Amino acid sequence: MSGSASNRPVRRRTFVLGTAAAAGSAALAGPLAQTASAAAFGYTDDGTNYVVDTGASLVFKVNKSNGDLTSLVYKGTEYQGYGGMNSHVESGLGASTVSIRQSGTTILISVTHGTLRHYYAARSGENNIYLWTNRADTSVASSRYIVRVKKGLFLNDEPDSYTFTNSTIEASDVFAKSDGQTRSKHYSKLRVMDYTHIGWSANGVGLWIVRSNHEKAAGGPFYRSLLRHQSADGGGLYEILHYAQNQTENERFGLQGPYVIAFTDGGAPSSSLFPGTLTTSWADSLGIAGYVGAGGRGRVAGVGITGRNTAHPYTVGLANSAAQYWGSARSSDGYFSIAGVLPGTYTLTVYKSELAVYTTSVTVTAGGTTTLNSIAIPSTNDPSNAGAIWRINDWTGTPAGFKNADLMTYAHPSDVRAAAWTGNVVIGSGSETSAFPCYLWKDVNSGLLVYFKLTAAQAAAAHTLRIGVTTAYANGRPQVTVNSWASPIPSPPTQPSTRSLTNGSYRGNNHTFTYNVPASAWLTDTGQYNVLKIDVVSGSGAAGYLSAGTSIDAIDLLA
Question: In terms of DSSP H, where are the helices of 370-493?
């Protein structure tokens, strides 16, 4: 690979791979994908940087005064840097104490900046850089590492890219292309549990960040965060350990990692690097602040989960103020196992898709396995089990199935691919869910109408109407009118205060609004349609798609 990066022909290929199975099929991946090098494993000091040669095909430099990664040379090509910026924690730590030492086949660079500790490690013969970040408090504004990649090396036009001919349509981070499609670094498509690594591949080179297990991050398994961005000026790969966008949890502090910068010969990184399977016994003796090896961790296992709706996946989460973990329940019987857990007492939550349907408390001990008997989800914990006269969508804690729901994780609501946000719904039409918009806004489609008929017996009784939401912006919440009866304006539930519906995220705090509709509200003529009107109310918000709004999970009228 030689010549100017900006003048080389570029094969436009992008990989965002989320499973070990997918990566396992890639040839020449991870530590085995190295090219013989005449250089020996070791490091030098050029006066400004520590220069580390992995003894494979990777040489990198770390600045001795601030801990920035200033050079990333793979097979003779420099990949580091765009816009004059280095790769670093947050946007650069500034003056720091940086030290280096070699222990056999491992080199460790330690960076100290106030209460923050950051580490780079290299292993002999590997094209990987292992990183840990220990953020002890809020003295550093946020916690991320960004790998800044030179212009022209990995061009792409993905949802989470900046466009090359962009027109800003919201804030300074959401853009529209000339064809009407939208792009933003926020549009990752993926929840944390959906991916193990993120990166690019072109011209026989793959550059990846393998994420950590995110035990000290926040937001849980379904959280969406920045993963990468690409622009005409270069690209960035992220490991974000706390991100405030549509965040539902408080920050967690402590050591996060390892996460890995990995080069390959184009394939996905080795599955041996993936979170939850990475063996770090070689790091046990490195003296990393806050490091807890496998022997100091425990496991939680459940023999099964009953009361599940097998049409949906189930996830088991563990969380306390210090750490978070998750694992999938086996579809056949609900068995689950979550390993590598720090000792402590956790809230265990069972999710039907993304809807919490069961919680309990578990205690984990170092070196031990906490085994749970079969968990029985009470029927009343799943709102889908309640008898209903009619229901629009199943209760899953997500807007999945509603109009435009899939698109909204990687596009702005104004995107040309979005179906009209307006349009009314008729119960019994067969298209109730697909016709109902996933989001409602005060300034866009408030006042949506749902038409339905009742039998004489149904119209003679009062009924409960339920509307489930997954997040809201600017305190947007639904007020309903049934024929001539209007509900009181409900109080807003607690939701994140940042943008959400326009930034690719519906994941907030699930909440159910209930409305007790009296029998006097119904039409007594069984041949006539009753009309439910759903308005979004709030005294906050701006205009258009930034007006007060909410994301819908399900709507039903109970029998």
Answer: 432-435, 456-459
pLDDT above 50 for 371: yes
In this predicted structure, what is the pLDDT of residue 152? 86
pLDDT in tens, 200-237: 999 999 999 999 999 999 999 999 999 988 876 678 99
Which pLDDT score is estimated for 550? 98
pLDDT attached to residue 150: 92
Query: What are 195's two structure tokens?
Result: 């991916």
- For 146, other C-beta atoms within 10 Å of its C-beta total 23
Cα 25 from chain centroid (whole Å)? 25
Return the pLDDT at 164.
Answer: 65
* Structure token digits, residue 357: 């349907």
- Which class for 367: exposed (0-12), middle (13-18), buried (19 or more C-beta within 10 A)? exposed
Contacts with 287 (C-beta within 8 Å, 6 or more apart), sequence order? none
Query: Taking Cα atoms as reference points, which of 120, 118, 96 lies closest to residue 109?
Result: 120
Residue 48: CB partners within 8 Å, gap ≥ 6? 63, 64, 65, 70
pLDDT tens digits for 83-98? Answer: 789 999 998 999 999 9
Average pLDDT over residues 485-511: 96
Residue-by-residue DSSP string for 55-75: SSSEEEEEETTT--EEEEEET
Which residues make beta-bridge pairs with 84? none
Please report which helix (H) or strand (E) contains residue 304, including its range. Answer: none
CB atoms closer than 10 angstroms to residue 47: 5
Instruction: Answer for the pair 369, 338: CB distance below 8 angstroms, yes or no.
Output: no
Nearest-angstrom CA–CA distance, 19 and 274: 9
pLDDT > 90? residue 31: no
- Within 10 angstroms of residue 345's Cβ, the number of other Cβ atoms is 10
The counts of H helices and E strands in the chain are 3, 39
**What's the predicted TM-score (pTM) here?**
0.91
Question: What is the residue whose two structure tokens read 């961790």?
Answer: 297
Check: CB of residue 226 under 8 Å from CB of residue 185.
yes
Cα–Cα distance measured from residue 285 to residue 183, given in angstroms and rounded to the nearest whole number: 44
Query: What's the CA angle centered on 291, arms 287 and 296, to 5 degrees?
Result: 120
List phi, psi (to 5°) of 416: -60, -25
